[in-house]
Specification:
Layout (H helix, E strand, L loop, with lengths): L2 E8 L6 E9 L3 E10 L5 E4 L2 E3 L5 E3 L6 H45 L10
C-alpha cells in the first residue's frame, strides 16, 4: 500500500497538537483525524484517530497493523508536515519583507520635501 495523498492543516497553538489532517492509501481508502503532535522532548510524532472510552482511556479507531506500514504512513505524514512548516515560514518571511519595504518607501517619501511650484516672491 502506498500513501497517495496527505492533507494537513497547521495549528498555531502552544499545546502539543501541531497539525490535523488526513491521508489516503492507494487513492482508495482515506483516514481522517490524524494529528501531528510534539512530545515533551520536542520530537514530532503521528497520532492516529482515537476516541475516549467511558473509563477515561483512549481507543484507536484506525491504525496500521504492521510496523512497515506504520513507518511508511508516519514518514509520509511527517514529511508533508515539514513541507507545510517550511512553506509557512517562507510566506511569513515574504510578508515581513514586503511590510519592511513598504515602511521604507513611505519613510523615504516623507523625508524629501516636495518643491513648491510657481513664482516665489
Amino acid at each position: 500500500m502506498q500513501v497517495s495523498e496527505v492533507r494537513l492543516n497547521l495549528i498555531n497553538t502552544d499545546n502539543a497538537v501541531k497539525a490535523i489532517g488526513s491521508f489516503a492509501l492507494d487513492g482508495a481508502f482515506a483516514v481522517r483525524g490524524v494529528r501531528v503532535m510534539e512530545d515533551k522532548n520536542g520530537y514530532n510524532f503521528v497520532a492516529f484517530p482515537s476516541r475516549a472510552k467511558a473509563d477515561g482511556t483512549y481507543e484507536d479507531l484506525a491504525f496500521p497493523l504492521s510496523k512497515d506500514l506504520y513507518a511508511h504512513i508516519t514518514g509520509a505524514i511527517l514529511d508533508e508536515y515539514k513541507v507545510q512548516v517550511e512553506k509557512q515560514a517562507q510566506e511569513q518571511n515574504q510578508a515581513q519583507e514586503a511590510s519592511q519595504e513598504a515602511t521604507q518607501t513611505e519613510g523615504a517619501s516623507e523625508a524629501k520635501p516636495t518643491p513648491k511650484r510657481g513664482k516665489g516672491r
